[in-house]
Each structure stands twice: as structure tokens, then as C-alpha cells.
Amino acid sequence: MNKKALSIESLFVMILFMVFAVSMVMMIISGRTSYGKILDEKEQAENLRIATSYLRMKLKQNNRLYSVFASRSTKMDEEILEIWQSGEEEAYRTVIYFRQNKLWEAYMTAEDEFDPALGESIIELSAKTVRFDRTEKGLWIIYDMGQNEIRQFVALQSEG
Asked: Which residue of 28, 97, 139, 142 shows the fewest CB atoms closer than 10 Å?
């Protein structure tokens, strides 16, 4: 009877140890998944901040009357932002657009027809779309993130 009690106690200890080990593994996996999600969200927020900062800088560099236009490209059926340069670069324009989950920029002469293949990738965004809405006072940059929409406003010169 003593050996039987010892074997039942040993079995109980082993089962208890196994439950403890499995719960520790589950806790580590859960923590790793949560940490990965937090890092992804931080990276997405940082990329969105970089994209907005880049667009603001481009717009402020060319903040003059009739130099910024939001339109729709017939080639790719997406909204584009056209920024006409000033000064020595007056014969050039920059076209910014969103495609393949990336923000793109094409720098071309004023006479060239816009071609998305000419663009260079600026940054990858986890947005569904990026729209540009030009108003009298400035430009709305609208990021459609799927479940929510993030709107950024950049004030632009509206009078000469």
C-alpha cells in the first residue's frame, strides 16, 4: 500500500508539473503574439507619421498660389496630388500617389504625361487608400485604414 500511495503521489506531481509547464508555454506564446502586434501597430503609426511629415514638407516647400492640385489619374483610377515647382525648377512637377500599399512620388517635367511607372516608392503604409482633398484653405490628406479614417490638414496659401 505504501508503494501504491507513492506511485499515485508521483503521478500527481508529474501531472501538476506538466500542467505548470504547458501553462508557462501558453503564457510565453501569448506574450510573444501580443508583443508582435504592439510592434506592428507602432511601426504602422511611425510610417503614417513619416508619410504625413513628408507630404507636409513637400507642400510647404511649394506653398504658393495655384501650385497644388488634387485630381484623379485616368491611367490608374486613383487620386493623385500634383505639386508644381517654383523658382529654378518651375518647369517641373511632382506627382504623389498611393498604389500597392505604398506612397509613391514621380518627378517629371511639366509637359510629360503622368505615368505611374516613373514613380519611386516613398514609404509602405497599411492603408486601403490615401485620398487628397484640396479646399480653399489647404489640403486634406485622408488615410483610409479600413476600420477608421485618419484625416490630416495642411494649410496652404489661398491669397496672393
From this structure: 28
How many angstroms separate the CA atoms of 80 and 1, rounded? 84
Residue 158: the pLDDT is 66
Query: Phi, psi at residue 96, to the nearest 5°?
Result: -115, 135
What single-letter amino acid sits at 70?
A
CA angle 40, 100, 109 (to 5 degrees): 125
Of 16, 9, 43, 33, nearest to 124 (Cα)? 43
Give the pLDDT confidence of 104-123 residue by residue, as tens digits: 999 988 888 888 888 999 99
Instruction: Say how many CA atoms lie within 13 Å of 114 toward its Cβ.
Output: 22
Cell of 142: 485622408
Name beta bridge partners: 81.
Answer: 70, 96
pTM of this prediction?
0.75
Angle in degrees, CA 128, 131, 134, rounded to 5 = 170
Cell numbers 501569448 correspond to: 30
> Of 82, 80, 81, 85, nearest to 61 (Cα)?
85
